[in-house]
Write a structure and sequence with these properties.
Elements: H1 2-22, E1 23-26, E2 30-36, E3 39-44, E4 47-50, E5 56-62, E6 66-76, E7 82-93, H2 96-101, H3 106-123, H4 127-132, H5 134-149, E8 154-165, H6 168-210, H7 212-227, H8 240-265
Antiparallel strand pairs: 1-4, 2-3, 2-5, 6-7, 7-8
Helix pairs in contact: 3-5, 6-7
Length: 266
């Protein structure tokens, strides 16, 4: 009787073990690739499935987008500048059967090919192009990766350059270049301002030549502005040539009057 209970307990334990190996649950974001005696049997959709223990082998494949960081690596650009470039890639499995049958480890393979592709693409561009045209580099890397990974049932959805590390000497040189560029722009803007000011002053001088009274009004306005400061002594430049001309006219008129006056007396 004791042996019967022992055998019954062993049978229950064996049944539980077989059920644990037989019942497989595939989640909503996964697919199961089923191999029977080493041959492809099919794809298991999300849900509960029964397989034959020790005969069937199921491999779960995630269909979600995977984030793959590409570590910083030293790359020499086309103009022989050594930079450290890191990036991040996003990919997802489109064909679960190919991702299991065609390649051993999808993530490791994509990581390695992404590093070599990034080194190749960046090496074909100069430093200035790498810093300013990152969007073009991202597209080039993604297209090359897509061409390689489509045979594995994987689609690379996005590649982004994350960081570009420059040598300290290059940073100092770029800082000097940026400072010189700003100084050049400041000088150009200052020269353009002087040119516009000179043109406006020339227009004002032409206007005053046509209307001499405008100069006198401007002199009076300047006196009013100076008077606001309540200065005790004001040194104000007068138009010398016009003053001399007016003085000569006055003397000539007085001379003519003096010459005419004796004749009138007689």
């Amino acid at each position: 009787m004791l042996w019967f209970w022992v055998l019954l307990v062993l049978a229950v334990i064996l049944l539980i073990v077989l059920l644990s190996f037989s019942i497989k649950v595939v989640t909503q974001y996964e697919q199961g690739v089923l191999l029977r005696f080493g041959r492809l049997e099919g794809v298991l959709k999300p849900g509960v499935h029964l397989i034959i223990p020790f005969v069937d082998v199921m491999t779960r494949v995630s269909l979600r987008i995977v984030t793959l960081p590409i570590e910083s690596q030293g790359i020499i650009t086309r103009d022989n500048v050594s930079v450290g470039v890191s990036a991040v890639a996003y990919y997802r499995v489109m064909d679960s059967v190919k991702s299991v049958v065609e390649i051993e480890n999808v993530q490791a393979a994509i990581e390695q090919i992404a590093q070599t592709t990034l080194r190749k693409v960046v090496g074909q561009h100069a430093l200035d192009e790498t810093l300013s045209n990152t969007e073009v580099l991202n597209v080039n890397v993604r297209e090359i990766l897509d061409a390689q990974t489509l045979g594995w049932g994987v689609e690379v959805t996005l590649v982004e350059l994350k960081d570009i590390l420059l040598p300290e000497s290059m940073k100092r040189s770029m800082a000097k270049q940026a400072e010189a560029e700003r100084e050049k722009r400041a000088k150009i803007i200052n020269a353009e301002g002087e040119q516009l000011a000179a043109a406006k002053l020339g227009d004002a001088a032409d206007t005053m030549m046509k209307h001499p009274i405008a100069l006198q009004l401007r002199n009076l306005q300047t006196l009013v502005e100076i008077g606001v400061d309540k200065n005790t002594i004001v040194v104000f430049p007068a138009p010398l040539m016009s003053t001399i001309s007016e003085l000569g006219t006055f003397l000539a008129r007085e001379t003519r009057n003096a010459a005419v006056s004796p004749a009138d007396t007689d």
